[in-house]
Amino acid sequence: MADLITVDDPDDPRLSDYTGLTDVELRRKREPAEGLFIAEGEKVIRRARVAGYEMRSMLLSSKWVDVMRDVIEDVPAPVYAVSPELAERVTGYHVHRGALASMQRKPLPDAETILRGARRVAIMESVNDHTNTGAIFRSAAALGMDAVLLSPDCADPLYRRSVKVSMGAVFSVPYARLDSWPRGLEAVRDAGFKILALTPDEKATTIDDAAPHRLERVALMLGAEGDGLSTQALMAADEWVRIPMAHGVDSLNVGAAAAVAFYAVTSGRPGL
Hints:
The protein is built from 11 helices and 12 strands. The chain has 2 domains: 101 residues, CATH 3.30.1330.30; 156 residues, Alpha/beta knot (3-Layer(aba) Sandwich), CATH 3.40.1280.10. Helices cover 33% and strands 19% of the residues. It is elongated and about 60 Å long. Helix 6 runs parallel beside helix 7. The protein is of the alpha/beta class. The chain has a 7-stranded parallel sheet with strand order 8-7-6-11-9-12-10. A 5-stranded mixed sheet has the order 1-4-3-5-2. The model has no long low-confidence stretch (mean pLDDT 94). Pfam families: SpoU_methylase. Keywords: Methyltransferase, Transferase.
């Protein structure tokens, strides 16, 4: 059973995992270096535990102690009970959901391991917005994608905002970072995948005509919001595909486009 510890000093060193959560640049560097990530909210914390992540500690406002009582009784990690005001001083923002947990990261698998058991894979290039990252992972989980691969410069899927937007779906979909870009795509092709680049370019085949759901193994490549896929990524793809648009709309937000494309890739797949 965890120790329930009341803390009233915002400078208490035991709360160091939670300091400066709104400082994006600091947390992006610090969290991977220290092997931790922050889970926010009851559902996300529970999903992280179900996914096998070890809890380092938990920070709760007093009214959430009873809600999380079963977790408190089940984990050996310390649980810090604080006032909402103190939580805000430590984290830098009003913790609306009243519950935070510092979780231990797991070692990431390599791309070859991820690809071995997959048939439907999403590849993200330079997607740096944490909200979009979380939305893409949530769609990947909901629509049956087997795995996600990230270019070296993609945002961290375990950053607090990504985890929150995904509602913990980042824990459900295996993912790996490619060591180089776009050279790392060679490993995807060597594993038997056809690489489709999602682009609004009129020269691209409509995704309906491409019929990706009929392919034995398919990897769908997505670019960053606004810029889309780089020229190098487009050149490395086997085929360009696009979502047909109406009413003069030229493109969708990358999170929305991912959901539409994932459905096209997985529809009719056995077991879905």
